[in-house]
Every structure is written in C-alpha cells, then in structure tokens.
Amino acid sequence: MSTANWQVDPDHSSVEFSVKHLMINRVKGLFERFEANMSFDPDDLTTIVIQASIEANSITTRQPQRDAQLKSEDFFHVEKYPHITFQSISCAQIGEL
C-alpha cells in the first residue's frame, strides 16, 4: 500500500464564502490564510484523510466594520478561537466514477 500526500497550494486555492443579507444582497468574503493537506492510498480512495486549518483572524469581506463584527465574540470570537479546523472522519464512494 503506497500513500500519496498532497498539500493545498495557497497561491492557487482559496477559502471563500457567500451569504444572503436581508434577502436581497449577497455578502462575499474569504479567509486569506489557511492550509490543508490530504493523504490517501491511490488504489483505495476510502482511505483518504483530510486536514485543514484556517486562521480565523484572516477573514475579510472588504468592509472593515463588518470584519470587526465577524471577528468579535458575536461570531468567530477570534481571540478565543484563533483557528477553524477540519478533520475528516470517513470517505465513501457514492455511485460510479
């Protein structure tokens, strides 16, 4: 069993979001600093393990007042929770490739 390792290239990747605001507008934003990696057996993709970490303080919507609110205790509370993390727990194939 061989293991392939892959790291997200931050120069060619992004962590972006879009949410509806007052049902008439969309607010777009992104996190500027993040990292992610995967490891897996190329012959068995159900072995994939994905880990990601985002610096919560790197959020930007290009609106400083909104960004300050998102970083506050009301939302991300970046002082207490500086990183947003993800760890996969399983992977399953649905349908045929």
UniProtKB/TrEMBL annotation:
Domain of life where this protein originates: Bacteria
The cross-references to InterPro entries, in alphabetical order and at most eight, read: Lipid/polyisoprenoid-bd_YceI, TTHA0802/YceI-like_sf
Every copy of the Lipid/polyisoprenoid-binding YceI-like domain together lies at: 5-97
Q: Which SUPFAM superfamilies match?
A: YceI-like
The record's section on Pfam families has: YceI
Q: Which family does it belong to?
A: Belongs to the UPF0312 family.
PANTHER family, alphabetized: PROTEIN YCEI (PTHR34406)
Q: What is the name listed in the Swiss-Prot or TrEMBL entry for this protein?
A: YceI family protein
- Origin organism is Alicyclobacillus dauci
Question: What phylogenetic lineage does the species belong to?
Answer: Bacteria, Bacillati, Bacillota, Bacilli, Bacillales
